[in-house]
Each structure stands twice: as structure tokens, then as C-alpha cells.
């Protein structure tokens, strides 16, 4: 249960409207530097943290699960649970495109989908002891077993291009200045390659945090049409997917379609100046990674296909509810 700011979307949730009000009040002030430094803001923040503890105690919550430890609301709950001696976990929602030793490390446990995701976290300084491979509640089992045994379909008949999204704010101690114009350049590079090899039209799918029409203002609609379909239906309809670092890499394979990773980079930095990380950096040979337009063209012309068995390293065959129960108890 969680004091969602949109409680109408939740079923069987324990709603605390006081917490929602306090949270929204803090959010309305947090973007103004003079407000954040004021004594009244500090007082509001202390009252909010105290209300969280009361909420936990009143409802007898024993364990916290959150999707990340970057957002203010999740960090507030993680801190509150820790201060009253109760544990917490991050249940990672997918395949990271960025790793940091200072992020995803504020909870007692980190739950991930597969062994290679755990391996990548350890590579970037995380403790293996606090990371548990749980699997995926929908994909683990027959779905992932079937996906790993088939060769992904791959042709240029119905191409889906996925945008490279950019963070709306900084989320680490290392400050990175990105250029949003490069997101347009990224799409135009793919368009140029597709047109060169004879593709007349393609579909463009934006990240859920983006407004798809923003792209059309710059790239027009002579080649791309916006894909608004449900993700599953979109992947079912696609003959190949081209995109950047994204969990869609795994979801495409679940739906049996080839995914070509296109991550143009200079000295290991991508187009928004972040480090390229596994498996999007080409270090996992089973995946298809193009680091420039020449490599993208070569992959498409030669009809290379992802070695689908690799998905078993990123999504466990078992959704380990037994392990979850052991940790929660």
C-alpha cells in the first residue's frame, strides 16, 4: 500500500489523504530555492516524515517495496522505514541504461529480473549480498522459456523505431549536461540508414514520459508515423525494432521480434553524454549493437538476429516467490 497522489487508480489500497496533501504541498515548494532554505519548508518536511512514520505504525506495515530510490517520495519512505527499524527493497522495473554506486543502494534489498542484471550492478560497485534475482511476475516461466527457444522474426516489412529519451533532471552526483537536440539527430540518423536500404515508412514510438508530437515538429511525417498502440500489440505487429538502451530490448525478445541496439557514441559516451553500459555497449556478444550508422546499415543488410537464449540471463525462468517470502518474513 502507498499514499498515491492518484488513489482512484489503486485497488485495495489504504489511502491517507493527509499524507497526499502534505506531499503535494512539499512538491509545490521544492522547485524554488528560496522556499527550500526556509524554516517553514524544513518544518513541513519534518512533519511529513513524522506523518509517514505514523502511517506505517498505524497500518502495521513491516516491509517497504519501491521502484527506485531516486524520487523524493520513495526516499522519504525508505528513510522513515529505516528510522523505525523496518526493512525495504527496490524491485527494479527493468534493465538499467545507467549504473551508479550511489543510486539503487539505499534499501536493504535490491530485487532484479535476472543474473546478468545482478552481475552488471556488481560490476559498478554494488554488494552482491543485497541483490536477489527474483524473475519477472509475467514473463518468467513458459513465456520466457518459449522466447529463448525461438529465432526472433526479423525483416524490414514493418520497422519500429524507439526514441532515445533523456532524463528530465540530474539523478547522480556526477553532473551531466545533455543536449535535447541530439534526440532528433538520433532519429534522423536511423531514418537516413533505413531510406538508404529501401525502407519507405517506419513507425516511431516515444518513451511514456515523452510527447510524441514533439518529434514530428522537427522530423515531419513524411517517413515516420507515431505508434500509439499498446506496447504488446505494437511489438506483435513489428518485424524488427531499432532503439537505444531500453528494457524494450528484453520485451521485444519476449514477443519474438528482433531488436537492434543503436547507440552512437564517442569514447564510450552516448548522444546525451552518459556512459554506455552493458549490454548496450557491445560487451554482450549475443546482442546486436551498432555504434555508428555504418554498423547499423551492416546489421540490417546482413539480416543479423539476436541470439535469443541470452534472455535467460536477463529474465530468470522462475519467478521466485519462495525467496520473496523468506526475505519478507
Portion of residues in beta strands equals 5-15%
Q: Please give the share of residues in helix.
A: 25-40%
Strand order of the largest sheet: 7-6-5-8-9-10
What structural category do the secondary elements indicate?
A: alpha/beta
Shape: globular
Low-confidence stretches: 1-7
Mean pLDDT: 91
CA-to-CA gap between the ends?
Answer: 17 Å
Evaluate the radius of gyration.
22 Å
- DSSP strand tally: 10
If helices are DSSP runs of H or I spanning 4 or more residues, what is the number of helices? 13
Looking at how many chains there are and whether they match, the oligomeric state comes to single chain
Q: Describe the largest sheet.
A: 6 strands, parallel
Series of H and E elements: HHHEHEEHEHEHEHEHEHEEHHH
Question: What are the salient characteristics of this protein?
Answer:
39% helix, disordered N terminus, alpha/beta, four-stranded parallel beta sheet, 329 residues, six-stranded parallel beta sheet, 13 helices
Would you kindly provide a written description of the structure presented here, covering whatever features stand out?
The structure is a single chain. The chain has helices at 17-30, 33-36, 39-59, 72-83, 115-123, 142-149, 181-196, 212-219, 231-237, 248-254, 293-301, 311-314, 321-328; strands at residues 63-66, 87-91, 109-112, 131-133, 159-162, 202-205, 224-226, 240-243, 259-262, 288-290. The strands form 2 sheets. Strands 7-6-5-8-9-10 form a 6-stranded parallel beta sheet, with helices on both faces. A 4-stranded parallel beta sheet has the order 1-2-3-4. By secondary structure, the protein is of the alpha/beta class.
Amino acid at each position: 500500500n502507498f499514499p498515491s497522489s492518484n488513489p482512484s487508480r489503486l485497488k485495495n489500497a489504504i489511502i491517507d489523504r493527509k499524507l497526499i496533501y502534505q506531499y503535494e504541498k512539499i512538491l509545490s515548494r521544492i522547485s524554488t530555492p528560496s522556499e527550500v532554505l526556509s524554516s517553514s519548508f524544513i518544518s513541513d518536511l519534518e512533519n511529513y516524515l513524522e506523518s509517514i512514520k505514523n502511517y506505517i505504525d498505524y497500518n502495521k506495515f513491516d516491509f517497504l517495496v519501491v521502484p527506485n530510490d531516486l524520487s523524493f517520495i520513495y526516499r522519504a519512505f525508505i528513510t522513515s522505514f529505516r528510522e523505525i527499524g523496518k526493512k525495504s527493497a527496490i524491485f527494479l522495473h527493468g534493465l538499467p541504461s545507467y549504473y551508479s554506486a550511489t543510486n539503487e543502494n539505499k534499501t536493504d534489498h535490491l530485487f532484479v529480473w535476472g543474473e546478468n542484471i545482478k552481475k552488471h550492478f556488481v560490476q559498478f560497485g554494488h554488494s552482491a549480498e543485497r541483490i536477489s534475482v527474483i524473475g519477472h511476475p509475467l514473463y518468467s516461466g513458459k513465456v520466457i522459456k518459449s522466447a529463448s527457444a525461438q529465432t526472433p522474426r526479423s525483416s524490414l516489412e514493418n520497422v519500429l523505431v524507439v526514441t532515445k529519451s533523456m532524463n528530465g533532471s540530474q539523478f547522480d552526483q556526477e553532473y551531466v549536461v545533455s543536449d535535447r537536440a541530439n534526440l532528433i539527430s538520433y532519429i534522423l540518423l536511423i531514418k537516413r540508414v533505413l531510406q538508404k536500404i529501401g525502407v519507405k515508412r517506419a513507425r516511431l514510438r516515444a518513451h511514456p514520459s515523452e510527447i510524441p508530437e514533439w518529434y514530428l515538429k522537427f522530423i515531419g511525417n513524411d517517413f515516420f508515423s507515431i505508434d500509439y498502440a499498446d506496447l504488446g500489440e505494437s511489438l506483435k505487429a513489428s518485424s524488427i525494432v531499432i532503439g537505444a538502451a531500453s528494457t524494450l530490448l528484453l520485451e521485444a525478445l519476449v514477443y519474438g521480434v528482433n531488436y537492434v541496439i543503436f547507440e552512437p557514441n564517442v569514447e564510450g559516451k552516448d548522444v546525451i553524454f552518459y556512459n554506455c553500459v552493458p549490454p548496450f555497449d557491445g560487451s554482450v556478444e549475443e546482442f546486436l549493437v551498432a555504434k555508428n550508422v555504418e554498423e547499423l546499415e551492416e546489421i540490417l543488410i546482413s539480416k543479423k538476429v539476436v541470439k535469443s537464449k541470452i534472455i535467460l540471463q536477463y529474465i530468470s525462468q522462475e519467478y521466485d516467490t519462495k525467496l520473496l517470502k523468506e526475505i519478507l518474513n
